[in-house]
Amino acid sequence: MSSSIVEVRGLSKQYGAFSALSELDLDVPRGELFALLGPNGAGKTTTMRMLMGILKASAGSARINGLDCFRDRVAVKRLVGFLPDEPVFHDYLRGIEIIRFVGGMHGLSASEINQRAWPLIERIELSDATEEYAVNYSRGMKKKLGLVCSLLHEPELLILDEPTSGLDPIATRGLNALLLEKVGAGMTVLLSSHLLDQVQKLCRRMAIISRGRLAAVGTLEELRQRANAESSLEEIFFAVAAEAGAQAASSQPELPSPES
Smaller CB count within 10 Å for the chain: N or C? Predict the structure, then answer.
């Protein structure tokens, strides 16, 4: 078995002439909390959607536990829990009905769903909303509901796209503690986040994507050396992103002058 649960090679996604992701190579080691960083539009969500088999790659490959993320997407979903940036639910189902439906889709019995869901529901302080219709949920409540659903089948890999957006500081702190516990128990977590201080505290390794390309990957210390920055992840992030942007700009073909 490979030491990496996620293996991406030359992964690219084109929309006509626009390149959302270009020749991405990435490995996510098992049992780590790994961060995917980048400006808006850098390609983070595109990468996660291809890992989940929602999008088909234009070129390259993405594998989770050796399974092709698109061809074997049904099997991949048995191994992975996914929380998108904007979870979408059937508005006129209650929170608990959504949880039971998702658990049933994973083949869990009613008793298994209750045993697994309620400790999570209580821990993230969603118990008062389980009988409420999803249409009345705030963004933060939807994030909490989506997190419960993503963990129900006890996945080997948890993929979280901006998991703390919509959460207040107390809920964010609780989520961070939960993720560290899950990783300590052997789960792998791949997350994207704009909260660089959070990533610096939580993640051992991280990758920075800029303009659809991998700009840097490594531990915080390795990224410090790469960026010639001695302080925070924020400084490293801006240095690496600026360098990647300059390289991308210099590689663009020059436009002909009006006289030519």
Answer: C
On whether the CB atoms of residues 150 and 79 are closer than 8 A, the answer is no
Question: Kind and range of the H or E element at 215?
Answer: strand 213-219
Quick one: average pLDDT of 206-214?
A: 91
Residue 141: give its domain's CATH number.
3.40.50.300
Q: Comparing 39 with 133, which gets the higher pLDDT?
A: 133
Tell me, yes or no, whether 260 lies in a domain. Answer: no
This prediction has a pTM of 0.90
Enclosing domain of residue 162? 4-249
Quote the pLDDT of residue 221.
84
Residue 258 lies in a domain: no
Angle value at C-alpha 215, between 200 and 219, nearest 5 degrees: 35
Is residue 213 situated within a structural domain?
A: yes
In a domain, 118, yes or no: yes
Q: Where are the alpha helices (DSSP H) in the chain?
A: 44-51, 73-79, 95-105, 110-123, 139-151, 169-184, 196-202, 220-227, 233-251
Confidence of residue 31 (pLDDT cuts 50, 70, 90): very high
- Which strands, in side-by-side order, build the sheet including 188-192? 80-83, 157-161, 188-192, 33-37, 205-210, 213-219
Per the structure, the count of domains in the chain is 1
The pLDDT-based confidence of 189 (bands split at 50, 70, 90) is very high
CA 7 to CA 47: how far, in whole Å?
A: 12
Q: Distance between CA 121 and CA 236 in Å, rounded?
A: 37
